[in-house]
DNA sequence: TTGCATATCTATGTATACAATCGTATGCAG
DNA sequence: CTGCATACGATTGTATACATAGATATGCAA
């Protein structure tokens, strides 16, 4: 039931088009997207339920997360990524596996300094992995968590020396999935995500303003 | 941003007031709740995002889940309940612990045959446990999963011999939380939820119509 | 000048009119 | 009788008018 305006607005929010304190008034959005208030309101409501915006008093504003909240979400995600990796090791089809292999191959060829492409491809890899679980509930939960913090693009991928480790982790992960070893796959995923969180915390400690 | 009509409609849906194939037309709901189409539409949209209703073609109908889908949700819930128990063992305050103790005490005094009360109190216990994690993301994910299958009230609690085991499990769980043992707490929770799923599967195998 | 009361203005909440669409019934032809 | 085309009806999608509330500015009095 995702309307065009909902997609546009969500994309704009995720692309940080709006400032965190800028009120998203319905009038402004109707002008911007050329629709009437009704679809705009519905889009806003969906974004609110997705945790992307929040009501502050009467106004709707971009939702920001404290460092604690981001860490909390990240910790939940570690749990779910581990579970997803395990389940993927049990449920992945040959097609799933070859898609993941192809993605990893693609990632190996990327420019290590092209942050946005790295981030996008990395996300594609994760998404593909989630789908390899063939578990609608896991997919939905992970998409939800990811979306909530996607705006905080301080990705760990460009952290010095990180990218090769990421590629190695993924290779190990795919190997575990390839041989249907759920424990190992889950363990690798958990370690990988935990390291990402650790780097994130380190970056935050070094400069708390760059969430 | 939860409107009165949204609450009423959700309560009615969770109480199985509507048949799974009955179209929830906006006209019918405006009449039932005495509001105009706009708030009704917003309520329907929220329920759709929560996975309680779905659009079938143009109509909105109660969302039903296949046995596979219910099992899938249950498996995800096992993961999250384990995580929640672990985190509760780390984060629960003295107040959290005493609230849980009080709830368990209350559960011990319940009539073993009063299914609805058993289910309600059991849910209260779980909810309290979730909150003891002080993790907004975990709470939100668990509430989401719970809500999606709450209508399938075929609770395992009235299965012969189950209730005493439940009470024993909870006592063990609270003990683990009391001594801040996250591994044990998580393990107990996982075992508890897995057994519940196993019973559910057994009940389903015996009579596939009673989801 | 400060404090409060009040008026006004702006944005949202609600109702309803209008448009578009989907499903269905109906009629006609083969 | 069956198949398809068409027209109609019901329901949702969209726009807008109206109601309401919250914030802010204004003016008066102390």
Q: Can I get a quick summary?
A:
The first copy, chain A, is mostly helical and 211 residues long.
Attribute tags:
globular, Four Helix Bundle (Hemerythrin (Met), subunit A), 9 helices, 2 strands, mainly alpha, homodimer, two-stranded antiparallel sheet, 4% strand, 211 residues, Arc Repressor Mutant, subunit A, DNA-binding
Descriptive report:
Two copies of one chain form a homodimer. Chain A has 211 residues and is mostly helical. Chain A folds into two domains: 4-62, Winged helix-like DNA-binding domain superfamily/Winged helix DNA-binding domain (Arc Repressor Mutant, subunit A), CATH 1.10.10; 67-206, Four Helix Bundle (Hemerythrin (Met), subunit A), CATH 1.20.120. Chain A is 69% helix and 4% strand. The first copy, chain A, contains nine helices and two strands. Chain A has helices at 4-14, 26-33, 37-49, 67-91, 94-108, 115-132, 136-149, 162-178, 182-206; strands at residues 53-56, 59-62. In chain A, strands 1-2 form a two-stranded antiparallel ribbon. In chain A, a hairpin with a 2-residue loop joins strand 1 and strand 2 (59-62). The first copy, chain A, is globular. The A-B interface holds A 1, 38, 41-42, 45-46, 48-50, 55, 69, 72-73, 75-76, 79-80, 83, 87, 135-138, 141, 144-145 and B 1, 38, 41-42, 45-46, 48-50, 55, 69, 72-73, 75-76, 79-80, 83, 135-138, 141, 144-145. The structure holds a DNA duplex (30 and 30 nucleotides).
